[in-house]
């Protein structure tokens, strides 16, 4: 398979520009639910209820909204089978699979660095005995 390359103007793909299509897409997929849905789908095809079980803590409404957004951006394919009740399955498209590698790394990152993050948070907030954390520079107006 050949991945289609972006054929719009360079401005549309420039994340630094507030009005770029790339920034809009980035904003869509750079949320915790979208990342977790992409990670859950992986290289599998899942029904809605299976995705709901895989993504602990997501509500029915948030899963629906994020699956629609991922489908709109061409990252998830939704297949409806004409049965009663209708059977609906979700799978990552080729671009979705391409994004999956990055998402997988992002989902692994917190586990690899959790100890460091917890130590930094402890230093920032101070001990749990109520003594203040590190001194912070005051802002003068």
The fraction of residues in strands falls at 5-15%
Our count of helices gives 5
Q: Give the neighbour order of strands across the main sheet.
A: 1-3-2
Mean pLDDT: 85
- How many whole angstroms does the radius of gyration measure? 20 Å
Please provide the count of β strands.
3
Q: What structural class should be given to the helix and strand makeup?
A: mainly alpha
Low-confidence segments, given as residue ranges, are: none
Distance linking N and C termini: 59 Å
- Secondary-structure element order, N to C: HHEHHEEH
Please state the overall shape, judged from the principal axes of the Cα atoms. globular
Give the % helix: 40-55%
Largest sheet: 3 strands, antiparallel
How would you describe the overall organization of this protein?
By secondary structure, this protein is mostly helical. Helix content is 50%, strand content 11%. It is built from five helices and three strands, in the order ααβααββα. It has helices at 21-29, 32-41, 48-54, 60-72, 94-125, and strands at 45-47, 76-81, 87-92. It has a three-stranded antiparallel beta sheet with strand order 1-3-2. Strand 2 (76-81) and strand 3 form a beta hairpin. The longest helix has 32 residues, at 94-125. The termini are far apart. The mean pLDDT is 85.
